[in-house]
Amino acid sequence: MRQTILARRYAKALFSLGKEDGKNEQYSEVLSAIAELYKDETVENALVNPLYPVEARLKVMAKIGELAKADAIMARFLALLVEKKRADILPDIAAEMRIMVDQEQNISHGSVVSAIELDDALKGKIQQALEKITGNKVILETSVDPSIIGGVIAKVGDLVLDGSIKTQLNGLKESIKGRE
Asked: Can you tell me whether residue 136 is helix, strand or coil?
């Protein structure tokens, strides 16, 4: 929980700086690219491990920033994370930054679970319906779960639309139990 709060604070600060210069999208992409590198434990270890001197960790972060095409403000931000021993939360900062940029651009992320693989035409119809309901552009991720029997479960933010046969059967079951 504490990491999320810290990550949100750092992301908010960077978001404010990026908003002034109109570089929020660029900053978010740079952070996401660097966060992707954290999947390799050796990269994360080189930036986070206190056994390495701060100067060495700063040089590694500077080189990563250079390769990610970070501007001066982003390079200073990355150095600050190393200096303040917060480099370990960079992936969380990247996620929070992406959320802030998406909110600014009225983009929501959603998921659709179906019993079978959905074709592109049906995905498009579901996406259009969710965009109409939410008023935002919706980016969907799809997954398959045969246990829902049929129908779909769509989630966008706090909105959950459950049209699965499994849920309908459970509702019918509860209704019959209630009458006994």
From this structure: coil
Cα 34 from chain centroid (whole Å): 14
Cα dihedral sign, 34-35-36-38? positive
Rounded mean pLDDT for each run of 10 residues along the chain, 180 residues in total:
86 94 94 94 92 95 94 95 95 95 94 95 95 94 94 93 92 85
Show the DSSP H helices in 68-149 as ranges: 72-83, 90-104, 120-134
Q: What are the residues whose beta carbons fall under 8 Å from the beta carbon of 41, sequence distance 6 or more?
A: none
Please return the burial class of 20, using the count of CB atoms within 10 Å of its CB with bins 0-12, 13-18 and 19+: exposed
Residue 2 has a pLDDT of: 67
Instruction: State the SS3 of 16-68.
Output: HHHHHHCCHHHHHHHHHHHHHHCCCHHHHHHHHCCCCCHHHHHHHHHHHHHHC
Domains by residue range for the chain, with CATH: 2-103 (1.10.520.20), 107-179 (no CATH)
pTM, rounded to two decimals: 0.77
Quote the pLDDT of residue 178: 80
